[in-house]
Amino acid sequence: MRQILLVLGGVCVFGVVAAVMIKIMPAPKDSDYLVIGSVATLVSLLVMFLVLIATRVKTPDPFFKKRKKKR
What distance in Å separates the CA atoms of residue 30 and residue 28, rounded to the nearest whole number? Predict the structure, then answer.
């Protein structure tokens, strides 16, 4: 269920960002749609990464793991 919500959230974020970019950019040309899609993809992947880190990892520093000391 969590994966489905994560994917649907990513699709929704992509759609919202793409719609906002289309409204903001003045008269988009063919290459402007590539830029809009790239920015929307970047933002949606960033949001999905942040949500995944926030919900999965409960450690204070999620990117580093303490090594066991060898004796």
Answer: 7
